[in-house]
Amino acid sequence: MRRRGSGTLKDVSPTAPAEAPVRRVAAFFDLDKTIIAKSSALAFSRPFFDEGLLNRRAVLKSSYAQFLMMLTAADQNQMERMRDHLTQMCEGWNVEQVRSIVRETLHDVVNPLVFAEASELIAGHHARGHDVVVVSASGEEMVGPIAEMLGADYSVGSVMAVDDGKYAGEVQFYCYGENKVTAMEKLAAEHGYDLEQCFAYSDSVTDVPMLAAVGHPTAVNPDRGLRKEAADRGWPVLSFSNPVPLRDRIPTPSRNSVLATAGLGVLAAGASVATYFALQRKRP
Asked: Which SUPFAM superfamilies match (predicted)?
């Protein structure tokens, strides 16, 4: 048996113990209400309206949906209805236009919503040599840029079917529930993660499969169902509440990131009212 070293071939004893493969560790983060204070998909309602993708009715409906999500824990049926609503709303949109809007408005829209505690946790995992992965039911067009802004190593989001450069009104991969576990297992196989040594963070009872798939699960801002589940399983619970400038929290953001100052996250009810009056001012 031989191995290559320093430009020469050296004999290696067949009885020498084989080196154990290095198992890497990842921290998997849900996005909405775990890293940021509201739905990432609905957060872009206003820029989509400004670019003509949404009408007033759709924006107000989205703001109202966000208000309901803030007041109540979204169960599986609510999430399915939200998925169907967003899928139908996006049908026919130009994919590149959506990506462009997200890139141009990302820091103004998302930066003020990022929890300081979440960005500190991300930095802590990186300091320990862990990969950080964002796993979200929101569309990959939003999840990817947000994850890059946060300094995450990888991301997985829902994938919409595309026909001739436009959304076809169907979901190709819904990154939700058990599908999140499928995505995590695929990443683990690709990058050598030992899920028993990995971490996961989420706020929703619908992410119990994601949390149960790793050795170190944590409930963050848990809804009622997840709080009960965490108590029954002995999972730790964290509370995140303070948005702050990302540049003060994440030491090595993407080199393309230009991070604006973050303010206090706006309550969804206030967002609904603000959106309504802003739209009224745009009327001729």
From this structure: HAD-like
pLDDT, tens digit (0-9, with 9 covering 90-100), for 138-185:
889 999 999 999 999 999 999 989 999 888 878 899 999 999 999 999
**126/261 same-domain check:** no
Q: How far apart are CA 101 and CA 89, in angstroms?
A: 16
* 133 and 97 inside one domain: yes
How many Cβ atoms from other residues are within 10 Å of residue 116's Cβ?
A: 17
Identify the domain containing residue 279 by its residue range: 254-283
- For residue 25, what are its two tokens? 């560790």
Q: Which two tokens stand for residue 107?
A: 């820091």
Picking from 118, 168, 125, the residue whose alpha carbon sits closest to that of residue 146 is: 118
- 6 within a domain of the structure (yes/no): no
In our burial notation (b when 16+ CB lie closer than 10 A, e otherwise), range 69-83 reads bbeebbeeeebeebb
51-59: long-range contacts at Cβ-Cβ below 8 A with a sequence spacing of 24 or more?
Answer: 51/97, 51/101, 53/93, 53/97, 53/98, 53/101, 54/89, 56/279, 58/89, 59/275, 59/279
- Same domain, yes or no, for 228 and 274? no
Catalytic residue of the set 32, 153, 203, 223: 32
- Write the pLDDT tens digit of every residue in 11-56: 334 444 445 455 799 999 999 999 998 888 777 777 777 777 765 5
The Cα-based distances of 137 to 58, 145, 200, 268 in angstroms read 20, 14, 15, 20
Assigned domain for 121 exists: yes
Shared domain check, 276 and 216? no
Q: Is 30 a catalytic residue?
A: yes
Q: Confidence band (pLDDT; 50, 70, 90) for 109?
A: confident
Number of domains in the chain: 2
Is 186 a member of any domain? yes
Q: Is the pTM above the cut of 0.85?
A: no
pLDDT in tens, 219-260: 999 999 999 999 999 999 999 988 665 554 444 444 333 233
